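Question thread 4412

I'm putting together a teaching handout and wanted feedback from people who do this every day. The idea is simple: show students a protein as raw sequence, then show them the structure tokens that encode its fold, then repeat with a second protein so they can compare. Below is the first pair exactly as I plan to print it.
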Amino acid sequence: MRKNRLFPERSCVVCRKKSEKENLVRLCQKPNGEYFFDKSGKYQSRGYYICKNVICVEKLSKHKKIKLSFEELYKILDDLKKDEKDYLNILRAMKNSKFLAFGTNMVLEEIKKVSLVIMATDIEQRPKEILLKKIEENNIKYIYYGTKDEIGKIFDKSEVNVVAVKNKKIAKGLM
């Protein structure tokens, strides 16, 4: 992440994670008090930001302060879907390569070689906490994508919590 005045950071109102504006979705409040998705990012109003991931959007639907209509939530999800890569198909194509590690234990064993981590959206809390601690210690980028079942099918397993990409060029291409 660039630490520079040219690239200001904002905090997600849902998870409180800091990120550059380009990695976040902007929400604004109209004079009548309604909130809306400011896709252009230029509406003249106080802006609020959320991460560009389904988990934060889902949690936003229950947010106490920022109430978005169903239509606005749908616009955000639709926009995310357009921007989102189909990581499952990419992983399916790469499943036999030496550049992937899957499963919590295998990823933790090879964490020093990892450049990107893809975690299932429905990963349990305990493995998630362990992985996030190691990811942050090693300054590794990560995303949430797919369910444990969907990722597991790629590797012919019943469930897989996490997949790690061990090649910097491939990880950069995925991000």
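The second pair follows. I'd like the answer to focus on this one:
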Amino acid sequence: MKALVGVTVVNLLFAVMGLGAQLDQWEVVSFPSRYLTLLDVTYGAGTFVAVGESSSLNGVQAEVFISSDNAAHWTRQSPDVRGTLFGVTYAAGGFVVVGGDSLGNDYFNIILTSRDGTNWTRRNANVANHLFDVSYGSSSGFVAVGLRGAIATSDDGVVWSDRSLPLDPALLIHGIAIDGVNRVAVGHDAALYHAIVVTSADGIQWSRRNLATSRLWDVSYGNGRFVAVGENDTLLQSTDAGVTWSRSVSGVNGHHLAITFHDGIFVAVGYPGSVISSVDGANWQVHRRGPESLHGIAYGRGRYVAVDYDGRILRTRNMPPVVVLEVSPAAEYFSLAPRYVVISPNAEDVTVNLSGAGSYDPDADFLSFHWLRREADGSITEFAQSQETLLGLPLGRYDFTLRVSDGIDDSDDSFEVRVISASQAVGIVIALVEESPLSTSEKQPLLKMLRSAQRAFDIGAIESGLHHLARADKTIDARLMIRDPDLAQSLLVALNAIRNSFQ
């Protein structure tokens, strides 16, 4: 559930401007169920996994929901386990889910593992208590924490060791985060009603600290600090592996129940339907308040997903695709988006490549491509559905549109392609010279060479035409570069584009 992510100054700036704005827009993609509770969510291997419980006359059933399409559609899994699933993470190539069940005064742990989020295997944590959260560190493996001071560790998520604190019925450890080496867990003492922090540098020996704050529900690590969240707008940060903590507030009149870290930003959610973010854990921005009680938050495929105690699933709103168009061989100087000029060297059909391969979706959605052409009668026809398409076009003017869809929103880029002959291209250069502020004595030699090139191209004398263009190049270099460097540069670029059309 918590990720350790490196961050640069550039990433921080992008995160604040980009993801921060994204957090202001949310939509409900799954509606509440009377008997469903969702408590956590994570992302990995292209899949979101949400966990919780459902209630019926037969008792409480553990529930897993998966989505591989940007959290728009969810599939219910059946792990065939009674009880409640409280926490889930993805690490080391697989998902690990933790939870618990009880029978009378007996408490049982639940650990499930899966490589694909579909097929689940039950593991034994060797602790006789519910497990509320699980996290992973590259050099420390998995750590799960829970009821009555329960702590379990595992290198692979399969074989677990009991590292629990001395049994304490009042000690509830709700969240765990790892900075790579240090493990920091948070919770509360139900008897004394204050927060607790439990830390370890090796996963074997654990130290407990009492804090004079409201109950803590979750913790995450990033930007060189642990940030813990809890009830009554409790927000704590520690830069010394959980030894000392400083407090801040967000102004939300409620409880923060879960926190994650992604791309330089901490994001916390809670009740009532709150979403807040911070770069440093001290200064917080409030993005949302709502009717929900949000117990889990995760980031994947370009968006945040949060889960609600009453079974709702929320995600940041869809961001439309960004169209990046390329037309080749578009002639430099003659082309300026959205108008592209292609020079046909033989004054006949020319092959034009239309590409939208550079297009992307900010949410990382799958994209579909639709190429449209406006016909002479004004009608619109679709002629291709691929990232790139090749067209044979005769001389003339054509109006196209590239429509890119992410399945929710479409983005269009309309553009014009004009196919001209080399002679017509030289004619454009001639007009540029004639309209320039050059003196008549400066224009005449250059116009003579350009008109000779134009006549040669008209009769198909390609080598002769290119020869006259080369002479024009030398004249521009020798006579115009000092006199009018901007004009000279434009003319050279235009002539070069004409020559390139013959390659």
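Top answer:
Good format. For the second protein you could add a caption like this: The chain has five helices and 36 strands. The longest strand covers residues 410-421.
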